Amino acid sequence: MKRIVLRSKDIYRGNLILINQKHPIQIKEEEIIKDLTPIGNCLSEHFINKNTAKALQYILNKINSEDRIIPVSGFRSRREQIDLYKSSVRDNGLEFTQQFVAKPDESEHQSGMAIDLGENKRDIDFICPDFPYNGVFNKFREEAKKCGFIERYKEGKESITGISKEPWHFRYVGYPHSVIIEEKGFALEEYHDFIKNYTSIEHSFKYKDENNLIQLFFVKSTEDVQTFYIEDDSKYEVSGNNQDGFIITLFKNCS
C-alpha cells in the first residue's frame, strides 16, 4: 500500500483552492511568484503558474487560435490588485468595480491560476475584454474543460460567487474537476460543497473516462499531520480547499 501524508498547512495550496470574499488567498506571494512562467514566450508581459501555462498553450495550439485569442491579464501581485481596484473605483464607480473587480486577496489572479482572455482586436478593455460565445472562442471553451479549465464566473451564479458574469475569465482547477464542474453546471463554490458529501475512498464520487476510474473525496483537516493509504498502482493528486481540508483525486487505469 502507498502512504499519503496530509499536513494542515497545505490546505491553502493546490489547484482547487477556493478564493473569494469569504476565503481570501493565504499563500505567501513569494511562493507563488517562484512558480510563474510567461504565457507563450519569454517576451510576454503576462505570467501564470507553470501547470496553468502548459495547459493553456496546449489548448491554443490545438485549436490554432493564437492569432484570435490573446491573454489580457494573468498573475497580479497584491499591490497590482490594490491599484486596479482603486483605479476602477475612480474611473468606473464603486458599483461597477464591485461587480467585476475582486478586492485584494480575494482575487484568483493572485494565485497564478487564473487568466483573462480576449478577442484580438484594436481596442481591448482590460477589465471586461470581449470573449464571445461563438466560433474559435467556443472551441476554446470545449477544449478548456478537457484540460483543467473552468469558465469561473457564469450568469446565474452571481449570488454564489459575488462576481458578475465574466465570459473571459478562466480558472485552472485540473482534470477531471473541470469536466465535472462544467457538466453539472456548478460554480466552484458549489463543487466544493458537493465534494464534501464524499468523505472516504469507500464513499467516494466516481468518474470514469476512457482510460481511468477516478475517485474523488474530501478529507477534513483535524490534525497537523494525517495519513491514509491507497493501492500501490493508484496515481493520486491532493489539493487543499483553502478552507478546512483536502480534495483527494485517485486515478486507477482500467483501459
From TrEMBL:
The keyword Manganese appears for this protein: no
Molecular functions (GO terms): carboxypeptidase activity
Coiled coil segments of this chain: none
GO terms under biological process: proteolysis
Residues of the D-alanyl-D-alanine carboxypeptidase-like core domain: 46-174
Gene3D superfamilies xref list: 3.30.1380.10, 3.30.200.180
Presence of the UniProt keyword Cell wall biogenesis/degradation in the record: no
Keywords: Carboxypeptidase, Hydrolase, Protease
Protein name per the record: Peptidase M15B and M15C DD-carboxypeptidase VanY/endolysin
Domain of life: Bacteria
Any Pfam family hit: VanY
